[in-house]
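Contributing: when you submit paired examples, paste them exactly as shown. First protein:
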Amino acid sequence: MRLATLAFLTGIILLQGMSSLPVGREICYVFILLPLFYYRPLRIPLMLLFGFAWALFRGQLILLEQLPEPLIKQDLEIEGVVIGLTEDKGRYQQFRFKIAHMELQGQTYPDPGLVRLNWYKPQRVLRSGDRYRLTVRLKPPNGMMNPAGFDYEAWLFQQRIRATGYVRNKAPVVFLGQDGGAVARLHRLRSAAAERITRLSHPGDSQALIVALAIGERSEVSSEQWQVLRSTGTTHLLAISGLHIGLVAGLAFWLGRFIWSRSLRLMLAMPAQQAGAIFAIVIATLYAAMAGFSIPTQRALIMVLIMMWGWLSRRSYAPSTLLAYAALGVLVWDPLATLSAGFWLSFVAVATILLLLPGQHRQGLLWRWGRLQTGIFIGLMPLLLFWFQSVSLSAPLVNLLAIPWLSLVVMPLLFAAMLLLMVSDVLAQLFLHLAQYSLDGLFWAMRWLVEHSSLFIHLASPDSWGLMFAGLGVIWLLLPQGIPSRWLGGIWLLPLFLPANDELGNGEARFTLLDVGQGLAAVIETRDHVMVFDTGPAYSAQFNTGETVVLPYLRQQGWSRLDLLLISHGDNDHIGGAFSVINAMQIDRLLTSVPALLSGSDACLAGQAWNWNQVNFELLHPGLSYKGRASENNRSCVLKVTTNHGSILLTGDIERAGEEYLLKTGTAKLTADYLVAPHHGSRSSSTEAFVRAIRSDYVLFPVGYLNRYHFPHQDVRQRYQGAAQYDTASHGALIVELSAGSDGVPVSYRQKARRYWHRGE
């Protein structure tokens, strides 16, 4: 069973690595071969084929639900139902909406199914199961495409969300009642439970954490709390997974068996152990439902169901077989689970525990618990680096104390409070407050550790080969005592700590125009130095591209400090991510045209120049004689980078006035092989005289997908006719290698890293 499950998983992974799905439905006919499964020699290859075909079938079904191209960003009238819990984002509410009917100007169109909507200043409090007629604007799933960045399009695909958009408040909103389906009722129950827990608990940091532990709703957990959890390696404590489901099932089994054994008549009808197993199945399923059946919850619930089925059928299963059945069950239910970090982290954590269990009985309890936590840390480290580029060295110590405290103190109090919600608000509130006080103490200790230690490290994400070899090294390291030369497994982990970027020589540079949506962020690297030119926008207090795009790229390239951060001007789409970069990295120098906005910065002025590894950098603007106000686009810092293999001109947001000033003062220096177009290709920039002076072979436009400004403007594209034109909305991050072995053509990261769920160029 274990080999068969691994083969099924391998088939799914092979499919998920494809840039496009195989054409034709014939692959689905492989299920006709199912009777051959009884022939033992064919089981493993058949399971691999079935995994591939099953993932292909499910992927094709999702891709069929597409937003028709003529409807993109049109005012559409839709009818449908709110799915799941809504998220309050302050300025707007975000929710999922299952469309049942869609039309444009009276004509009906096929709908894309599940969509994700923002509603600014909503007219009603949204609840799961509410049915509405709305006017919305939609666009296909889209995410920023960058090396080491979060694949938002993959997440949307896994969630079956086939379009995103917003509600048009100018149009009438019609409430059509509530959906009576089981799923809607379940989510209304979750929402009601969250509201009651919030009302009965005392305000404070732990309130959001208590709701997350109770029903798996984590939208109210603050960014500061997430940072503490990440820095201590305890984010899993907020995921209702094996730890919580197993604890609930164990308590339910013990309680059911105890109650049943008090009655002789009941004992004669059914053994107490079987009654306890049924009770555990019911309670664990209800708790998993309250958690929304997340992937870790599915895995844990399937394991509990199989274990309890063993009690009912009086059969026993090896723990590794239980894990294999659980993995197979999750993959059959949702083959796209492999796109989630939670799937890999949860299963590898349990597999690591099973690998460490043999030989544990000879040592003391504390030693065994410490060895187990250390082993889990080693086992998960390659995956944490692959998914998040970071790992907390304090995780084994913190989990050594946090897991028992959560399992034996916080969770029993919380379970009691949830049960008492059905009986008495007064008693439920008492237990909720006790759970909060115990959680406050744990979180205070973790926050103190973060403030007084620097045990959180960032490293580059390993590639697939590096991850595979690291996995083999982990298995070899964690083999039972007595296996010779286990230390050799550590050698296989060494590639995790080595930078993955290609070495640059003197006079060479790598230029990366990052995809930050409607904004600008670029990184210039030489052999020993690195600088960032702008950091993209801050979309909210919780989300900015400095943290989510710029920093991951720098860490992926192996940089732990910046020689220079240059912010061209003060518009949000250029400076929004700067503060996250400043807080996260050591920066030797900070230049900007708006020094009043950035503490410790110097003003960028024309004439400033430096040389790194025989690569020349020179600022061409703003000059001392320029009279434009500091807040204007035309005071943007303009930088020219010259290597032995080509030159690049970065122009910020200068417009006609700034271009005319540059033409008067520095025409001879303006020519460049690569141009980052002024002001994202707006019509107010890229004048014909400026375009003629630059004479670029390649023009790069940093723009957002379907941006409201319609950048780059068609008139501007026409002016650059003759130059190769690239934009980040179509190509994702654009990477230019100015080196001896490169042809100089910008590399489209969207094309390079494309998977079948990604939007095309």
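Second protein:
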Amino acid sequence: MPESLKKLRIFAAYPSDVVSERGKLETVVESLKPMADYLGLTLKVVDWRAVVPDAGRPQQVIFDKLKPTSWDIFIGILWHRFGTPPGAIDKSGKDFLSGTEEEFKTAYELWKQHGKPRIVIYRCIRALPFDVDPDQLKNVRAFFKLIEDVKGDYPTLYQPFDTTESFEKLVLNNLQKLLIEYGEESKTPITPEVVQVLAPTIPNNLPRRQAFFGRTEQMDIVMRAISPADRTWGVLVDGIGGIGKSAIAIEAAYRAQEASLFEAFVFISAKQNILDPSGIKELNPSARTLDEFLNETARVLGQPGITKLTGDEKRRALINELRSMRTLLIYDNLETLTKEEQEGVANFLRELPQGCKAIITSRRRGGEGGVWLRVEKLDWDASLGIIKNQISLDDGLANKLDRVGEAYWQKLFDEMNGSPLALVHVLGLMRVRAALTFDGALEMLRGNRDEDLQKFIFQEARKELTENDKAALGALSFFVPSATFEAWMDVAGLTRNALETTIDHLSAFSLVDVLTSEERNAMQPLTRVFVRNELLTDAGVKRDAGMQFAQYWVDYAKRYGYESYETYDRLETEWTNLDAAADWLWKTANVQSESIGNKDAARMLDDLVSATENFLWFSKRWDNHVHLCTRSYETLQATQKWHYAGLRAYAVAYVHWARGSMDEAELWASHSADAWYRSASKYEEAAANQLRGEIAQRKGDYAKAEKLMQVSLDIGDKYNYAATVGRALKGLSDLARIQNDYKLAEDHLRKALVLARKNADNYSQLACMENLGELMFDQAEWAGARTWFEHKLKLAEELGRQDAISSAQYHIALVYEAEGHIDLALPLAQEALKTYEQLQRRGLAEVHELVKRLLKAKG
């Protein structure tokens, strides 16, 4: 082979609109390196960028440094730009219109004289951009008209392409053929078999696959996110250190490989340290910045030419490369990037071509446009799998664990709080430290004496938490499951600006979840444990933080609980936090028979129950109603606040009465009567007697019922208690109705309704309307019955009373059934049934039976 062919120099001429194709050219040349090595050749691509700036006409400087006589192959690439005039004239005396034109004509003249360089021209024919320069485009078209003229001075065959991928294939095919020609000239022919062997391989640099346990739901989320059917760019897996983010990403990549979802797999990690039994070891990651991530991606894909580009050109070239093959990108430990660079990654990922996906892991949340997966504690079954796997690797560890037995292993899991890294780390310590027994490992964990483990999981947090961070974390640890900004700010005792700064800091380390869509903030279980163990170890600090949390919700309940039902949606939204506050106050009050451990907590608990009592009744939370009123009753009884104790007992009795649990109702009604007798409250005494009378009526003891109700009526008349009189009249009406004295029953009800309206007693109005409707129904006066039930429904809807709404619906459905209007009755009955089932209220069986009858009648 001639010496001049030992090194093939390829000169690239191109304007700025085809830089992506220029990057592909270098990539193709790099991929042909094995074939060139086989032939004893060196391939090198050069262009104007390789020239050191110097004085003189720019194009001449380029020619002086990259002598055209040294070019073996000239490759020209044109689309809609032609370039800048170089300030020289051609052989006909005309000005060159661009440096590209001067380079082409110079190469052409050399080819005519010496047979080299080989000239290859490519023309891009894809759609033109909206901002195309008409003069530039005109020059491009004139150039191709020139070389298309077979009788002209520069006739040249060129090849069109429409995408960067098709350009790459053309260049690869053409250069490969040239190499084969050189091989034949040098008597080193390349057979098809050799070509196949030397062809570029599919990029794949995944780490070695490890044993993987559990995480079924999380893996389903990841696999759906990287499936072709999902429209996002992929998934962000975040969480605190050691929770298993990288393991999920790598396992998902292998599963995707097995399912042939992608043609290429790129794994790049910015992890700076790892934890093993000997301690924390520093790493030297290949990427620490966004630009390095892009460069590493290009290298793994076999496109080193892209690394030489900068800014948007590099990003566009990499995106164009990804269009050529279905690729899964795994970017690991992105928390090392700045916030701006993480946003840059997110922007890059949003541009991924169809067929490409990404999995990124971070201790910080980010990556808008993808699916977000916050990884939390591992379950026991998966942890058991890890333990058994580790046992299989080491006999010494197996012996230590066998001594205590499998049933005892869960104690280790409980101390790990579901962290797979913590579990493997402690098992590793037991393996390498002969003296460390199972019990010793437990004691080490319980005493937080494994500094390496704590440092690794919360390494950034431990060294960077400010006093504001600590206050914010301590406050947030009480919220269940999340907090609004305003609530968090108040409980933490921070200003708005201070908390905003703190949230940014804490979310950066995955210590809190900023639930943007809900405008709330939450904390992972492992972080909650960290906060309680590290920040709230002082009993006084913990008590003060808890009281601040509870006081906020007591105030919140008073603000929205004493208003009309229109504010109850606020209580519904925050019920889990209100319930958590009540539970904390109950435990802190520490009620022991007739003693109270913390009177402030006891007082606040009753305030909270008092403020939420109506809400709990109206919003179907009857179980919560009974639970909280029972606790409040016990607290008030211990402090001998009999009036309020009677109120709580009465509330419990009334729920049982409404549900038809008459024995329980009678017991609690007796508690309320006893408490009010002690407080000498005649109004409440009448109410207790009335309720006991209604319970006696339900149990069939009509004589006792009438006696108790008459006592209640007498008290009401004597002390001018309108509500007491109204309810007694209603109760007596029920008794008259049972005895078929409809006239007396109606008289009682109408008197009660007049009183209720006069005193704006909505509850009594609802009851009277229902009973008047039932009286009409009993006498087959369908229109009159329906009118009363509809009056009740309208008022119940205005008040937001779900129990009264469902009762009215049921009764109207009964009227429609009696009138033969099945189609009108059925939907009302079905709607009523839903609420009855939710409340488990008295009459459920009757409503269910009505629906059953109506369905049967409808056929």
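If you have annotations for the second protein, write them as plain sentences, like these:
Confidence is low (pLDDT under 50) at residues 1-5.
The two ends are 95 Å apart (CA to CA).
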